[in-house]
Amino acid sequence: MEVADRSSLVVLVKCGLGAQAQALLASGDLPGAAKALQAGMEGTAGASAVLDWIRAAQARAVADQAARLLKAHATVLAGSLS
Question: Cα(first)–Cα(last) distance of the chain, in Å?
């Protein structure tokens, strides 16, 4: 399941699950959405169904953070060359 594909989360919301996660996702808070969905599903039969999405969302958040750090580093290096 791709993180960019929000349809799986929308299905959960229509089933009455993950409304907070969807609101966080809509505001751009992917790590928060993953945490909210994980907390909301913990201990339920559906927890394993959303595990792949949660893992993908967490991995995406880590990759986004790494990209921001690399961009900042490149900006500093470029500034030191001028």
Answer: 44
The pTM for the full model equals: 0.68
The alpha helices in the chain, defined as continuous H runs, are 7-14, 19-26, 30-41, 47-81
In the numeric block, which tokens belong to residue 42? 């913990």
∠ CA 68-71-73, nearest 5°, is 110
CB burial of 23-48 (b: ≥16 within 10 Å; e: otherwise) equals ebbeeeebebbbbbbbebbeeeeeee
The Cα-based distances of 20 to 48, 49, 61, 75 in angstroms read 19, 18, 18, 36
Range in 14-23, 30-39, 54-63 the model is least confident about: 14-23
